[in-house]
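Whiteboard transcription, Tuesday session. T.W. wrote the structure tokens on the left side:
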């Protein structure tokens, strides 16, 4: 998708006089272990970052090339987590919203509008528009998706050093066959989401 197309959603708001637009996205809603991560990014209007797209459509190598470019060229950005304990306490959707609010609080400047990937709106004290498939349609949301994904992946690799038997560095906590096999052998560890282990517990 061309950079021009990635700015179409923002352009509609710029034409209405909106100046600073922030994109928000998350990484790690689905895994069995680890926190959920959210990022908020305000890019300069029509900034061209070649190859910027939904982080899920990019290779790990490309995401890591884009990561510092986004950080260097953004007007502001914030990255934050909600823990596995918070996920178990308030559910994954509310924990995702919590991480998004924390990421927005990290911004050095306040945006005029927040674009959130998906169709559910977090409760924030700013104007919000949800954008389904926003990480493929909005430059700001795509940038946020890259920051969230790389940050969470790096944390899971670090946690793999603390819990080497689970292979977190490979599957990043998602429910792969190898991950379930490790759960069978070792049981859950401190960073597993208890509320996500129904399939595992139903067998025991």
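and on the right, the sequence the group agreed on:
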């Amino acid at each position: 998708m061309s950079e021009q197309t990635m700015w179409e959603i923002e352009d509609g708001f710029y034409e209405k006089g909106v100046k600073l637009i922030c994109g928000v996205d998350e990484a790690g809603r689905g895994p069995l272990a680890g926190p959920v991560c959210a990022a908020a990014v305000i890019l300069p209007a029509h900034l061209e970052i070649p190859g910027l797209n939904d982080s899920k459509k990019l290779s790990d190598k490309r995401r890591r090339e884009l990561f510092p470019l986004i950080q260097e060229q953004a007007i502001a950005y914030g990255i934050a987590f909600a823990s596995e304990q918070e996920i178990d306490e308030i559910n994954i959707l509310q924990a995702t919203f919590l991480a998004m609010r924390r990421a927005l609080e990290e911004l050095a400047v306040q945006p005029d509008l927040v674009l959130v990937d998906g169709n559910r709106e977090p409760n924030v004290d700013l104007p919000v528009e949800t954008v389904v498939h926003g990480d493929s349609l909005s430059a700001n949301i795509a940038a946020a998706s890259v920051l969230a994904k790389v940050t969470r992946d790096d944390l899971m690799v670090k946690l793999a050093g603390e819990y080497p038997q689970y292979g977190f560095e490979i599957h990043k906590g998602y429910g792969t066959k190898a991950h379930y096999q490790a759960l069978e052998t070792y049981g859950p560890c401190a960073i597993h989401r208890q509320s996500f282990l129904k399939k595992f517990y139903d067998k025991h």
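Someone added at the bottom: The beta strands are 21-27, 36-42, 76-82, 113-117, 128-131.
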